[in-house]
Amino acid sequence: MIEIKEATKVYSNGTVGLNKINTTIKQGDFVVIVGRSGAGKSTLLRAINRLHDITDGEIVINGKSLTKANGKQLREMRRDIGMIFQNFNLIKRNTVLKNVLSGRVAYHSTMRTLLGLWPKADVDLAHDALNRVGIPDKAYVRADELSGGQQQRVSIARALAQEAKIILADEPVASLDPLTTRQVMDDLRRINQELGITMIVNLHFIDIAREYATRIIGLRDGELVFDGPVEDATDEM
Ligand code: ADP
Ligand code: ADP
């Protein structure tokens, strides 16, 4: 469970990214955060992984305060949280397998991962993850030789290899065509349903949100303007 309590983010230039957001997300939810550009979607997502700090309020994940976590606690909490970005964030020149294995870095010493000394169990996890997203045959291909949709699948596989319990996806389909968009969203839904991984996905488009979400959070100017089941969401968010 993720509890977001009075979360406020004021950037150092004075911009209010989030204003006293309160919400609770249950394990296994498929939440889509909608809102226009600048609404605060990405600010909220980055706060849930503490890629940046909120300036007020608190975020608690499974009973542990993310906001108050020290360095070691934060590293442990982050193992449970996978991230997916619009631009995939892959290391282009590395193989797909190596990119997926990078989801395992939080479990090993830096030296070991730098040298690429992955235990067989990790390699097996990486292959399983590629299997689950339907590209088992791409393991030894360079990441930048794949199509956009395939690259996004690699980043989903990376989160799976990480054994994340929560996946945060910041505009994961914004650079994909409509057909590929559906394929990637279908993957996320399947993973949510089969593995019970909580999905929190930022999207521009309310129609895609309606189709995939079990719950919608609407943001406008850093304020929470909607929080509820898909059926109750209106079109003007
Ligand atoms: P924080 O308050 O979390 O430390 P900063 O204010 O340091 O974040 O911003 C990080 C960087 O993003 C700065 O270089 C800042 O200039 C830049 N930035 C400023 N305005 C925006 C904006 N509207 N969108 C994205 N980045 C911005
Ligand atoms: P969205 O993801 O919904 O497009 P953001 O969370 O990126 O919205 O931005 C929310 C608000 O915070 C906007 O006004 C944006 O310009 C501002 N903002 C985002 N990042 C920064 C930053 N690093 N520094 C200053 N302002 C920022």
From TrEMBL:
InterPro entries named among the record's database cross-references: AAA+_ATPase (IPR003593), ABC_transporter-like_ATP-bd (IPR003439), ABC_transporter-like_CS (IPR017871), ABC_transpr_PhnC (IPR012693), MetN_ABC_transporter-like (IPR050086), P-loop_NTPase (IPR027417)
Residue ranges constituting the ABC transporter domain according to the UniProt record: 2-237
A molecular function GO annotation: ATP binding
Keywords: ATP-binding, Cell membrane, Membrane, Nucleotide-binding, Phosphonate transport, Translocase, Transport
UniProt-listed SMART domains: AAA (SM00382)
An example Gene Ontology CC term for this record: membrane
Source taxon at top rank: Bacteria
Signal peptide range: none
Protein name according to UniProt: Phosphonate ABC transporter ATP-binding protein
Taxonomic lineage of the native organism: Bacteria, Bacillati, Bacillota, Bacilli, Bacillales
